[in-house]
Specification:
Elements lengths: L2 H10 L3 H22 L3 H8 L3 H8 L7 H10 L15
Length: 91
């Protein structure tokens, strides 16, 4: 399935808005944590076992961040994993 077809499936799925908001929130939290701690994309990539380009794709929203990756990032960044999830459900 191509990227465009994938995005269209996600947007029309019942859970689509929540998933899109959650992925956006994850990217924002990671950007803020990286900036506050001076952590590079390369270092985050090492933490989750991917190359820098794959990490960049996650930070740009091209690839979803997996649950196990979030757990590893939360531990590395010394934060609670719940910070990756928005506190409200979109309408």
């Amino acid at each position: 399935m191509g990227r465009r077809a994938h995005d269209e499936c996600i947007e029309t799925a019942e859970y689509g808005p929540l998933m899109l908001e959650t992925q956006g929130h994850i990217r924002q939290v990671l950007a803020e944590a990286r900036a506050a701690r001076g952590v590079s994309q390369q270092r985050l990539a090492q933490v989750i076992g991917v190359n820098r380009e794959a990490m960049r794709d996650r930070l740009l929203g091209r690839t979803q961040t997996k649950a196990e990756e979030l757990a590893a990032l939360a531990a590395f960044l010394e934060m609670d994993i719940s910070e990756f999830f928005p506190s409200r459900v979109p309408s």
